[in-house]
Amino acid sequence: MLYTDEMLNSMKKVELSRESRIGQVPRRMTAEEKDILLAENHPDYIKSAFTTLSVGANKGQKVPCALADLLQGKSRILGKKIDLKTIKYESDVLIIGGGGSGASAALEAYNAGCKVVMVTKLRIGDANTMMAEGGIQAADKENDSPATHYLDAFGGGHFTNKPELLKKLVYKAPEAIKWLNDMGVMFDKDENGVMATTPGGGTSRNRMHACADYSGAEIMRVLRDEVWNDNIEVVEFTSAIEILKDDYGNAAGAILLNMETGEVSIAKAKTVVICTGGAGRLHYQDFPTSNHYGATADGLVLAYRAGAVLRDADSIQYHPTGVAYPAQMRGALVTEKVRSIGAMLVNVNGEAFMNPLECRDVTASSIIRECRRGNGVKTPLGDAIWLDSPMIDMIHGEGYLEKKLPGMLRMYQKMGIDMRKEPILIYPTLHYQNGGVDVNADSMTTTVNNLYVAGEAAGGVHGRNRLMGNSLLDVIVFGRNAGQYAAARAKEIPMPKKLNFNHVKEFDKEIKAAGVEYKELSPKLLPNYNTIKTL
Ligand code: MEZ
User: Fold this and answer.
1) Which of 21, 76, 292, 339 is catalytic?
2) pLDDT at 535 over 50
3) Which end of the chain is more exposed for a tag (fewer CB within 10 A), N or C?
4) 319 has catalytic annotation
5) What DSSP assignment string belongs to 330-388?
6) Cα(68) to centroid(ligand 1), Å
């Protein structure tokens, strides 16, 4: 039996209250209520989960403990003999990472006439982009505007977003959708060919463009095909383990590690673009994650050691609805779209306790609080909340859920759950790093010349809380942006003559002088599951 009697009794209450909840919209919280809720319940406020950095550009600032261990970890090249004269890959632009931002950057740099090499530690497309479900925002309808999109994202980010980055994100969004559509991304459209759009948490207009509930997979399919079609050199199963610099302290390549053979090699380039994604697989505070296997914050480590500044690195997004039960799917993403199209969050007594389309940090905190108040559903894996998915077909008619959420429906069916007929159990899951490397509007880091960062590895675009659908948008807009600027710069400068990794040695000296003990080899590259608490 999948559910205990207690769970089944609670499910009965959800069924009984369902009819009366249709058409009811729970009120939004006031700003003051939100502030109190966040301070008392959001995991970012748990002081013991953070520590202060002792070295580097962000010395004195707090970051999650697991991230600090990596930022101040032992470089993989220390004590190794590195031959900097034998260059295995030489290019105008070196792209590190093979997800959505890496592919977008590669395509733009290639189109600008540059020789591009992309290195990626797994395969091209093995990335969080591929896992994205609900959609991509763009204000391209008559009742909407980039300015409205800006205000939504700025408010959602608690007014901490870097204005020049956010402006670029929202103004370039319609063009990004067109770019993808023209390349062949199969967006959902109505019978007249008009893009279908839905709302998301914190959006004041319906501007979520989607490809059912596999938006990221469809976008990545097309980007990957384009990279392959262009014959861009893609080096798979190869990680960048340090940035290389020229005699002037500018980024000039990377030291690479072949993940299969262990061979170390050198890539030299005029400009370097880091597109390594997020950090979910660090499992901050022992949260499960919706992230891809490779999400281990590698880019932050590479950039930090090279002298880049991080911003909002203590701000983490817990997606409100991760699978809480059954165990096989724990932590997997239950797209926000389930709520966008009508499902409510309901407690053990069958009561809707909040508006389901508050921003993510507020929604996640409200779910955590409801469980802390004793109103969660007890499962063998911990407390959870119902997401009342059968409401969707009751509101829109039979067949709607299957049409809009085919992937999710199948995922649950495999576990013997029909989400059209029964609610599903959710709890927040570690989803996104809101912050990252500080970059300018040209995607170059604020302190290291010729080093660019795009996508989840970059900070500032979303401030301290990202809205749904602005991540896929970020990887496209800023992947392209980084590729264009890195290419333009590469055309202006000569190929670096000599390479060095003096900054790695200097950083190591700083670590020793600060009395910090290494806890990890870094970058981490792959998660280490024997250290995660078992259920
Ligand atoms: O942007 C996201 O994180 C997103 C669209 C996730 C989702 O709920 O589907």
Assistant:
1) 339
2) no
3) N
4) yes
5) TT-B--THHHHTTPPEE-TTS-B-S-TTS-HHHHHHHHHHHIIIIISEEETTEEEEEE-
6) 27
